[in-house]
Amino acid sequence: MDWGLLVLVVLSFSFLLQVIYQWFFPGRLVFYKSKAVNGKSEPVSVVLCAKNEYSNLKKHLPVILEQKYPEYEVVLVDDYSTDDTKPLLKELKAKHPHLKVIHLNNDINFLKGKKLPLSVGIKSAKHETVLLTDADCYPASPFWIQNMQKRFSDNVEIVLGYGAYEKKKGFLNLLIRFDTLTIAMNYISFALAGLPYMGVGRNLAYKKDLFLRAKGFTSHYRTISGDDDLFVNQMANSRNTTPEISPESFTFSVPKNSFKSWFFQKKRHFSTGKYYKKKHKLLLALFGISHFTFYVSLILVLLFTKYWIWGVILFIIRTIGLMINYYYSSKLFNEKILFLFSPIYDIFFAFLNPIISTTGFIYKNNKWK
Predict the structure, then answer these.
(1) Is the pTM above the cut of 0.85?
(2) Beta partners for residue 270, in sequence order
(3) 160 and 114 in one domain?
(4) DSSP label at 256?
(5) Which helix or strand (DSSP H or E) is residue 50 part of?
(6) What is the C-alpha separation between 315 and 14, in angstroms, rounded?
(7) CATH no. for residue 172?
(8) Can you give the pLDDT of all 369 residues of the chain as single tens digits?
């Protein structure tokens, strides 16, 4: 077998894996239809943590406190902020009695991460349904709580929401939003396939009893990240987990304003992947490896072999499927313009993600803020 044919075989095998992933997982969003939901308005505890987030809290917390929902509380854990957070919370508490504020001392949070303050907030919640978000996030509508809560039923204990990023000008913003859309396509479609493996703490709900049964975050307390994805990876299954992706259920976050800060944020997120269940690590690794090898072998086939026409054919077929998936997913997640850039960004992330994931496995940052 000549080396050119061998490279074509590698390309063909990578192509086959990519097409299987495209249609078995993200392809489910093409045919996605919302299921019937629970009509009961059970009380909800919204829990979030903050450390020196005065500006974000002043801007976003009132939006959470003014949700159109009959019975809910907002539990905010202040992890020893040294800015003007404390007087702001005192002022908001006077206006909104359903705001519960918990102040932590600096020497209490010995892990220097988010898991301790978040655990304190969840354990202090008085309602069984707990809805999580971050201090730099705000709901897309006054019906955020309503839409997330309605997904719970007798069997459902975890609801996976979508945490978007604000639209701003520039290449970096498009990059961040495309990456966020891709991640959502993956974890939502995996959940629809009965293989939930992660959620995002910007918009995630689960039952307090589930948290207590898991003994909180003790199974991964030494890792700074993972309060969202590692908890879901540990406790989610095909029966107790469902997504909620109506536009009114979204949250929005302020995106990073430099490539360096976004890169390190992704490194921190990737650092938790090594703790996933083996089946999830295998499935995600196969996708990432086949994604990378597809483009590497494609370049070799196009430039150095006589089989270049097959490379062109496989690239066109995969790109059509890719754009179909991103077209429908972009509509679902209100990011309609992003599918136009999907072929370019898909190539970009095929090479960037291996770099981030490799460095993410040796991520050593031990601070939350």
Answers:
(1) yes
(2) none
(3) yes
(4) P
(5) strand 44-50
(6) 11
(7) 3.90.550.10
(8) 688 899 999 999 999 999 999 999 998 998 888 776 766 789 999 999 999 999 999 999 999 999 999 999 999 999 989 999 999 999 999 999 999 999 998 655 555 678 889 999 999 999 999 999 999 999 999 999 999 999 999 899 999 999 999 999 999 999 999 999 999 999 999 999 999 999 999 999 999 999 999 999 888 877 778 889 999 999 999 999 999 999 999 999 999 999 999 998 888 888 888 899 999 999 999 999 999 999 999 999 999 999 999 999 999 999 999 999 999 999 999 998 899 999 999 999 999 999 888 775 554 554 556
